Amino acid sequence: MSQYPLREHAANTLRAHSNRPLHEISAEAVGAGEVSGADLRIHADTLRQQADIARASGFPQLAANLLRAAELSDVPNDELLRIYDMLRPERASYAELTRLADYLEATYGACENAAFIREAADVYRERNLLRR
Prior knowledge:
Layout: H1 6-9, H2 27-31, H3 44-56, H4 60-72, H5 77-86, H6 94-108, H7 111-126
Helix pairs in contact: 3-4, 6-7
């Protein structure tokens, strides 16, 4: 836990999704119109650092969630919403879910998310939650 919170213990290494150093993002910069939407998004490396802290602190599920979030940090919001919708019960077939997993893995290198979606597809099939 000595690294947490990152803003206090690793501030000079943190950066926004835009790669802008976090210390450059301030209320003054926002007020001056110098901050973009990408400046307000978290960088995948920060999520990975948080995952390391969570794992070391005995929270493996939280660490896994943070790693999946890091993988998705480059996925556009409209695609994330489509993925979310497909993962709702009875919204997709088994083949559609496995294609989605393959797409995420090939396009974004999102291996953990792909494995998660494949597992969900198997569970949905077992529980009869796939689109009919």
